[in-house]
Each structure stands twice: as structure tokens, then as C-alpha cells.
Amino acid sequence: MRILRAGDHKRMPWKNGKGETVEIAVFPPSASIDGFDWRISMATVAEDGPFSIFPGIDRTLAVLEGNGMVLAIDGRAPALLTTQSAPLSFPADIPVTATLDHGAITDLNVMTRRGGLSHSLTRVEIDGATRVPLPSPTCLLLCHRGAASFRRNGETGMLRDGDALLIEDATATALEIDGEAIAYLVAIATD
């Protein structure tokens, strides 16, 4: 397990140049924006416009902050995403346009390369002692807001706003968490 501190996340421009993303974790670790197998990042969306296209990639978004945004995904009815919405999955290689709902938002973005990997993204509300199952070999828990201590197989630590815990041998185990926080669990599996 590795703690990825908020202050160490990598900041970089969006692929389409219209904003900035904060990369939490990527695999392989030195992968470029076009060469990753999986990638987890946050971004601030400050204006309406198209999403970057990522050929061969599947994507899931959750809104972390702000009033929300409407996504017009090619071939689907428009979908409103808010901080209370379930994360939304869609192919990252089709046209998608975002329209903000009264101001900027911050989102959490999970992407995996289709045909080899798949992923899930789940919101986890922590209020006291919680046991979080880890369903896939690679899991990442992002502490979006609040603070939580964790333990697993004798290892312990603390996560605060923006910190993440990357677990690369997680299959069929669980993470014991205690605290008050809003977190997101990413599970990445091999197809």
C-alpha cells in the first residue's frame, strides 16, 4: 500500500489544452497522456465545451464540487451529474460536451484501456468504523473531504483531504477505515 499525498499529485494541462488536471495515479507510472493503461485524476471544469478524446479508453466521472454539469454524450440523452449523482461511465473516444450548471465544478475522472482493463468507481461515506471490501487487484481510495485512518494486514495510516491510498495486491481483502470522510473507491480489474 502507498499513500499518495494531495500535495504530491501531478498538475498538467488537459489533452485539449482548455484546462488543468491533477493526476492522482497512473499506470505505468511514467505513462504519457496517450500511453497509460489506467489513470485517475481530478479536474476543474470552468467553462462549457467538449471533452478530450481518448481512443480505446473507457471513462467514469463523479462530480466532487460545484452545482454540477450536463453531459451530452453522443448517442445518449443528456445526463445531469451533481455531487449527489452516482458516477457516470461512458466511452472516452466518442464526442462528449459539458454544460455547467451555474458555475465551475471539480470532477474525479477514472480511465482504463478497453480490451484489457475495466474499472468501477463508488462513493463511500465514512462515519465511524467502516469495512470496505477491495474487489480487484488494484484499488485506490481517495479521501475527498474529511479524515480517515485505515488498517489492512498490519499496516496503518491516515488520509486527509485529497490524499489517496493505492493498494496493488487487494483482491478479496478489505480495508478497515475509521473517521468522518467522503471518499471514492476505484477498483481496476484485468478483463
TrEMBL record:
Transmembrane segments: none annotated. InterPro entries: RmlC-like_jellyroll, RmlC_Cupin_sf, Uncharacterised_HutD/Ves. Coiled coil: none annotated. Pfam families: HutD. It comes from the Bacteria. This is HutD family protein. It comes from Rhizobium bangladeshense. The lineage of its organism: Bacteria, Pseudomonadati, Pseudomonadota, Alphaproteobacteria, Hyphomicrobiales.
